[in-house]
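Q: What does the assembly look like in three dimensions?
Context provided by user:
Components: three
Sequences:
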Amino acid sequence: MQVIQEDNSTFQDDFKQAKKRLKKQQKQLLFRRIMRNRGIVIGGSTMIFLSLFALFGPLIVSYDPYEMIVTDRLKAPGGDYLLGTDNFGRDLLTRMAYGARVSLSVGLSVALLSCLLGMIIGLLASYFRSLDNILMRICDGLMAIPGVLLAIALVAALGPKKENVIIALTIVFIPNVARVVRSAAIVVREETYIEAIRAQGAKTWRIIVLHIAPNTVAPLVVQASFIFADAIITEAALSFLGAGIPAPDPSWGNILHDGKVVIFTAWWMTVFPGILIVLSVLGLNLLGDGIRDYIDPHTTK
Amino acid sequence: MRQAEMAPDRLLKEGARQENVLLDVQGLTKHFPVKGSLDAFNRNRPSVKAVSNVSFQLFEGETFGLVGESGCGKSTTGRTLMRLIEPTEGKAIYRGKNIFEQSSKELRKTREEIQMVFQDPYSSLNPRKRIGSILQEPLIIHSIGKRNEHTDRVMDIMQKVGLLPEQYYRFPHEFSGGQRQRIGLARALIANPKLVICDEPVSALDVSIQSQIINLLKRMQGEFNLTYLFVAHDISVVRHISDRIGVMYLGNMVEVAPTDSLIQNPLHPYTKALLSAVPIPNPRIKRERIALKGEIPSPLNPPAGCVFHTRCPFATDRCKQEVPESREMAPGHTVACHLYD
Amino acid sequence: MNPEKLLEVKRLRTHFKTETGRVTAVDDVSFHVNKGEILGIVGESGCGKSVTSQSILRLFDEKYLVKYEGEIIFKNEIDLLKLSKAQMRQARGNEISMIFQDPLSSLNPVLTIGFQIAEAIMLHENTSKEEAMAQAVEMLRLTGIPSPEKRVHDYPHQLSGGMRQRVMIAMSLACKPRLLIADEPTTALDVTIQSQILDLIEDINKRFDMGVIFITHDLGVVAELCDRVVVMYLGQIVEEADIYNLFENPKHPYTKGLIQSIPHMDGDREEELHVIAGTVPSLENVPVGCRFAPRCQFADEQCNSQAPELRGIGDGQKVRCWHAEQIAERKEEVYATS
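A: Here is the predicted structure of the complete assembly.
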């Protein structure tokens, strides 16, 4: 065979060169492919903007989110208050900035926690057939109850606190993740390369963690972004109904809750937080779709 | 030229063959229960009799070919030996130990020495892993060598199977079917196995690529002193590569013989029909075909007695009732058929 | 006496529109099929043999996917590529019919096989349903299906692979076409079943004096069945010869290579098999010059720069190679390994 090279030293050299070239190529490619992906660019910049707003917004704004200036109740946007004030005379922009911290951190924690736990459950269910029935029936049971209702019930039982909202929402979203991971993992489990690695004598955990799990990441990332977005909405809904983040603390949902009684006199209290919620949900969905396209190795060339 | 190189190997093989049984399979049986939603409560649920009471031996350094048509249980036999499928009954003695009774720890050690090459070059490589890490995996699993030596070993095996060094960082989807099969073979060989189970390794490949891989398999056998269990449906390929051949039909081993003996002097009526059906790439030869009547019966409900009696031109009443025993008709040539009683 | 030409393909080109541009899957293919003849088209995957056959029936979406060039003359009068859609629909099944590799996916799983055959008949002939059903039973009997009166009521999944292929053949014969195109009809079948199907095809070819285009990658099957063979490589015909010349006197290095790389039942097992080096290039970067040159052991300057034409070389044999005569002389050397 002429493809076999006789000289081992040139073989090694070729390899080193290939490695160098590959690293350089990878950097260029990574950048170019990210820039070409409209979902990642638009969704990513939206999310970066919102995160910056949450991180640095509270440092820049000049008001206290809890300070009520009764004389400045329901001021329209403009003047001293850029986005107006609420019905207690608190600066809306300030509250929105602090609220961004709460809403985004709740969304992110819920997304991460539910993905982690859901992934573990999904992988276990897919690989151990005996566990499959039990775990999936529990998930079915949880999914049968509408998400917001279940969250309200859980928060009511646990008590209205930020941590409890996160726990409640995590429980609500775990079954979705578990299902997605399980169905992806079952497809992968039947592939010959999993059989091949079993034939190598790999331990079960190695097969699950190193070979099955990475192949479920693509759908999981998409799911995570949807859950992030969903969690922001659900948290807002809970707070709007008064069952979420307790009263003086700002969250986008709380501001909406406060605004609903004055919706005809103070439109800004509904519109501005609403825009932030829409932006974050849209941004996350775009980002999720973008990442899914990016991760798929078949599009690498 | 090549012949001169091979000759000593062959002599060695002939000598070694007499004494060293590497793997002894005795009475291997595999029944797959048929799944139904409530069948878990049913004790006598139907099962697919994929492999029934199959026995054969693998001698060190030889290639044992397993042929048969789809559904005859040849692939199941190979997979059961790796315990990718748990057998229903039987023994597989490898180096004095029964593989089927090994604990998962012992089995891991055995799996280092018995490796497998798969049919589908597309699904047998993890699409998310680069070639380098696919080939390193066996070394990590069996803790062979130091981590920093792994790259060298991978390079070494890549070179041997005819891959290029710059392909180390490629993904499987960038390769053609033939190259993937080279990667699959490299993965099987990197842990220095004794026995390689090849499950239809060339049947998904084009003719011109097929011959490259067959040559490679043979060359690697000489270089690593491997024993092959070669499972395939293409008889001319099996004939080319095997020292001995076993013919399976509907889960049963009907005939086992040294290759030339089997091809020139097939005894079992099924083997005869199978051989006569192989198309010959020579338009001047019009071989008399032995037409088999009907189709292969369902393995859910195989015929009583000899499983072949429903299609056999020579079937008698005895064949319908009595399962034929395997008997040796010539040195190393055994057949399970009542015609030779 | 010259045999009557049933179908003549002249300089056929099939272009596919893809995301990255235009890919020419079939490039300058010319051949003919005589009445009552079995023509084999041989080649490896990606050589364009299936695309050629599907182009004859114009099965690709012409609006978005594909563009044809050349002529496909049927029965010395009609150019199939010039027919309107409705006329083409009439020709399909009625004059020319096709069977595929995978009979399960070519049959509708929710309809009985009898209904599907009857439907094929009723599409082209003005018959009642009862008559069509009766004909369906006849067709099934013709293709060797036991107790066809009962089998017509079966669904495809109730039949084995070989039986399904028989049903497909029955369906394609329903309107007594003049030309049958068989695209790898036995590749998915076991050898014993394959030989039954080959016998069946040979039988209907003789009985109805029907032209057959048989597409396969298996040279053994070709040797058993075909009268004349066309060998394709990377979208082009590289050699055309009658069956005896093809195996005994192959002119193109690719044909030679193919014939030698298959293991023979009577070959020397100690010998290494002959190998065609390298792999088939993709259609997106076809080599300049002769398309086989990068893998050819005889390739020289001319081969790498100039593309050879398919040319007659005597005895009805055609070859697309600059050096066919010289290579043919080196017969014994090349044959040493077979």
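Follow-up: The interface with chain C takes residues 1-3 of chain A (CB under 8 Å).
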